[in-house]
Write a structure and sequence with these properties.
CATH class of the largest domain: Mainly Alpha
Radius of gyration: 20 Å
Helix content: 55-70%
Strand content: under 5%
Structural class: mainly alpha
CATH topology of the largest domain: Farnesyl Diphosphate Synthase
Shape: globular
Mean pLDDT: 80
Number of domains: 2
CATH architecture of the largest domain: Orthogonal Bundle
Largest sheet: 2 strands, antiparallel
């Protein structure tokens, strides 16, 4: 599963709530777009459904469903036909289509190795999106226009990093605004737009940071490498990230949101920043060796650190005070960054 938002180190109650929203969106994808669309499930769309939920902190009624992706265990989920969930579902499929296109161009992942098959899947999902949007009176065409603008901008050669941020900012800002207009948050549409822009800025910046080493090695375009030089890359990227997090935290404080949303947008984003700009090299080989003890792939909430940490039950905010894994390869609790797992 891909996505920008991190869910590591949530406390037990928050993890249960997040899991139910996750399962709700997964089931909604199956019901509205077919089994294939479930591969597009991502954390950002789950977060969008949570943000736009009418009563995220209330005791909403749940249903039971036997999930084949969780060893046929019963899982609880919320209603799959609410406006927030349906909107998040179509955004999830659309983002999956964009991701496939990116991987084909970058020749990475499954889509990069099998572009013909991936293009067929992409066109199939795009047809599903158009049909659903027409039925539900949702217009997401501006999002694709922003995607095309992003591609054209990256080919232009400009060295103004802020210009590279704008298309993603505008696309996510539009998505968040439409989410507010299609749910019970119409009065906050303008603020949702600004929240989306700040969120989009963080998404684009984080993606560029994560791909930095690979893009430097392969020669693929990376805006950080193109706009900044040498040692200034990390400094400038950190500045932009921290400013964006502060902006996002301020904007979210102006609207009514659930406590889980606040946790994800405050402590979790700061935690991600510490990991993203850490100067300690990532030893992926040692982490992969410990993945079986740290992450349960069948749970689809990787990395939840349930096997190597007591982070989820610590409820401490930073998730480290309750950690009891001194020999775990996927955590650096002593350094203040618990559960720095790179599995996605």
């Amino acid at each position: 599963m891909f996505g920008f938002i991190s869910t590591c180190c949530l406390n037990k109650h928050e993890r249960i709530t997040w899991s139910r929203y996750y399962c709700t969106l997964c089931l909604a994808l199956k019901r509205h777009f077919g089994q294939l669309s479930r591969f597009s499930l991502n954390k950002d769309s789950v977060f969008l459904s949570l943000l736009c939920s009418e009563s995220p902190d209330a005791n909403e009624p749940t249903e039971k469903h036997r999930c084949s992706l969780r060893r046929f265990r019963y899982v609880r989920h919320y209603a799959t036909d609410t406006a927030a969930v349906k909107y998040a579902a179509v955004v999830s499929v659309l983002s999956g289509c964009v991701k496939i296109g990116d991987n084909i161009r970058d020749k990475s992942g499954f889509a990069g190795h099998f572009p013909t098959g991936a293009s067929m899947i992409q066109r199939h999902l795009e047809r599903k999106v158009r049909t659903f949007c027409s039925k539900e009176d949702i217009d997401l065409s501006p999002v694709m226009n922003h995607v095309r603008t992003q591609l054209e901008l990256e080919e232009s050669g400009t060295r103004d990093f802020n210009r590279y941020l704008h298309p993603t900012e505008d696309a996510i800002g539009f998505v968040f605004r439409e989410a507010a207009l299609h749910t019970a948050h119409q009065q906050f549409a303008d603020r949702y737009t600004e929240i989306g822009k700040a969120y989009g800025r963080l998404m684009y910046l984080s993606d560029a940071c994560r791909d930095l080493k690979k893009d430097r090695r392969t020669g693929v375009f990376n805006p950080l490498l193109h706009c900044f030089s040498g040692g200034s890359i990390t400094i400038r990227a950190r500045e932009i990230y921290e400013q964006s997090v502060q902006t996002l935290e301020h904007l979210v404080s102006l609207i009514p949101v659930s406590s889980l949303c606040m946790t994800l947008l405050t402590g979790q984003l700061a935690h991600q920043g510490r990991l993203l700009f850490s100067t300690v090299p990532s030893d992926k080989s040692s982490r992969k060796g410990s993945r079986s003890g740290c992450c349960d792939a069948s749970d689809l909430l990787c990395c939840d650190c349930s096997g190597c940490c007591d982070c989820a039950s610590s409820g401490s905010g930073d998730g480290c005070s309750g950690c009891d894994c001194p020999d775990c390869n996927c955590c650096d609790c002593a350094g203040g960054d618990c559960c720095s797992c790179d599995c996605s």
